[in-house]
Predict the 3D structure of the following.
Amino acid sequence: MTQTKLGVCNLCEAICGLTLTIEDGAVTQIRGNEADPLSRGHICPKGVALADIYTDPDRLRRPVRRTGTGAEATWTEISWDEALDTVADGLAKAINENDKNALGIYLGNPNAHSLGSMTHGFQLIKTFKTRNKFSASSVDQIPHMYVGMLQFGHQLLLPVPDIDRTSYFLVFGANPMASNGSLMTVPDFPNRVRELKARGGRMVVFDPRRTETAKVASEHHFIRPASDAVVLMAMINTLFAEGLTDVPTYVDHVEELQRAITDFTPEYAETVSGVPAEEIRRITREFAAAPGAAAYGRIGLSTQGFGSICQWAINLLNILTGNFDRIGGVMFPEPAIDAAKNGLLSAGHFGVWRSRVRDMPEFGGELPVSCFREEIETPGAGQIKAVLTLAGNPVLSTPDGRRLSEAFAGLDFMASVDIYLNETTRHADVILPPTTALERDHYDLVFHTLAVRNTARFTPAVFAKEKDAMHDWEIFREIALRTTARIHRNTSLVQRLSERVRLSLSPTTMITLLLALGRKTSMRELRKNPAGVDLGPLRPTMPGRLHTKDKRIDLAPAPLVADLDRLRAGLPVPAEGELVLIGRRHKQDCNSWMHNSERLTRGKPRHQLLMNPADLSSRGINDGDVVRVTSRVGSVDVEVAAAEDMMRGVVSLPHGYGHQVEGIRLGNAAGVAGVSINDLTDPERLDVSGNAALSGVPVTVVALVPAEVG
Ligand SMILES: Nc1nc2c(c(=O)[nH]1)N[C@H]1C(S)=C(S)[C@@H](COP(=O)(O)OP(=O)(O)OC[C@H]3O[C@@H](n4cnc5c(=O)[nH]c(N)nc54)[C@H](O)[C@@H]3O)O[C@H]1N2
Ligand SMILES: Nc1nc2c(c(=O)[nH]1)N[C@H]1C(S)=C(S)[C@@H](COP(=O)(O)OP(=O)(O)OC[C@H]3O[C@@H](n4cnc5c(=O)[nH]c(N)nc54)[C@H](O)[C@@H]3O)O[C@H]1N2
Ligand code: SF4
Ligand SMILES: [Mo]
């Protein structure tokens, strides 16, 4: 029997609508759904591979328990009941014998892509009240959220480029041709850029690598890694110096801002960034003159030592040129469920408490993940004794992952909710695998909030859940209820009952209620229109949407102005011959997983260190050699590939590689080569927000003599 069903891809932020052909219960084809008002039929190679996860024999389908450690470890399937009780026992023991902070929690990226995680995962974490909460956000977008909180009054207020109507798209440190967009849900980026250029618009890209995005841009400029803050401030400086500002009425501290940045001249920026001063001036003028321009910066910008200053400067460029809250500029989407408005997520807070060992500030209730290892290894009150990871692989995705792995090995207890045995979950005593994307209902609570067009879509599960499988939200409910029942804490019967009721509402029921509250559409309408409902293009909403008390925007928030001194002191002019490391993403990769999908991993290897040919020859290294890359933190040995696309002095490794663990067959990789870039990145290098500075790590690269190549 052949059936056609609509689905949704949850592998990146583009949230593409899919049409699946199912024959005799097996997916035989996946295409983009042309009727989808947001994704308009777009699909990428990962979307086509979505069913590989569902059928993957390596994927865990039942809970497993570990006996033995390291290469001697073996995993045995156990029942859900036994697994959940073991997890509850282990977590409660750590808390009862120490205190609530003895539990460390890590949340990974796929939580943002699962409805059940959004509705029940946060609930689970709240029940534990631990201060030792970490997530992939602090190796990703905390600077955006921190600046959103400081300037717009809410961590979720992130301006999104109006890409379909802009005439000038200025991009720093993002590669949407490979990533499909981030904090800018933009399915079908390639066509949207084509349309932008066809209507006479321009895309200008600043990146130390001539990326896939740079190659389709109107202009690409090499920029020294981690020097963007100075270039951006020089642009702001130019706006003031040349009288190019067009400031809205609802902003404060224009003069303070102007005073604070007078020394960041284009000439100074040229010395640290390599971007000629006259180019900085020309681009600033063109940006200011364009009828609708949007400045945008992503991972390359937020994961550097001055990530918050960079995101602040991006906002300033948009605001000062009148492009903020303007058609063709940047605007705040108006999702059918507005998590900022209805209080699902708080406005955010910073430094309300600090980490025990390094005294680092929390943001929005999370500590920087760069502090995770030391909180496990340093004895004393508040030490982490047990860890719970939810859909994350911090051993490969956070700085000095190798050392974090050693710390996990020394824990009293660890549990992971994950669909694979991998570099992180192999340390867990128990792994609890939930159902996957095709088996669960989806409404996107996160990415409609960041989309280039206002739409809403509810997608019922494509396949029914198998007998003896659990959804993530059911697992979270059980961990919460079983663990709290074992924790010696004074909770009233009423409290416990209300917690049980809240955790027992299904995600779909909660979405139905939230849609009714938002009054933009309803579950009934979404069920009638499974391809999605179009709520129209982005539109100006200022200053009404601001969450600041006075409904005004502070152009010069004190903590960011103060950080300018660190910027002045922290950017030495690069020395001759110095190399710095940056990361990269490929279209067919998905952070650290999906490497066991045959159709995504075949073809040319892509794990190599990319290096400019001139940097190779000056070191006597040949294309294809195995080299040793060394940072303050560690070394890796990897093949090098000559790449004209790399700026001189800059080398690049993809993240999410490095799957070999001796003696263990990992479920997230079938013999994929490569090393982990995060065995080189440094947990000591942080932005003021606590976000890791993954970009611009100083490294040396030497060729290994054949005898050393293992
Ligand atoms: N050097 C460097 N490091 C980086 C980055 C970089 O650019 N450079 N990027 C950073 C960024 S932006 C991010 S977001 C992080 C990602 O960091 P993480 O979130 O820690 O890593 P992922 O590789 O996304 O791991 C996802 C995990 O979730 C599991 N999983 C997949 N689907 C599901 C599901 O439906 N349910 C459950 N329970 N588990 C599931 C997978 O098996 C995998 O173990 O990496 C960061 N690290
Ligand atoms: N195919 C694929 N798509 C993905 C993912 C994936 O793993 N694979 N991951 C998803 C996730 S979790 C995220 S957060 C997004 C990220 O989305 P993007 O930010 O678009 O992704 P990246 O490709 O990491 O782009 C970062 C760019 O910054 C550049 N860069 C590095 N350092 C600097 C610097 O100092 N200055 C400047 N100007 N540029 C710099 C890099 O060369 C790179 O081109 O992608 C998402 N989409
Ligand atoms: S662009 Fe992203 S959401 Fe769309 S099919 Fe590819 S991975 Fe899935
Ligand atoms: Mo990310």
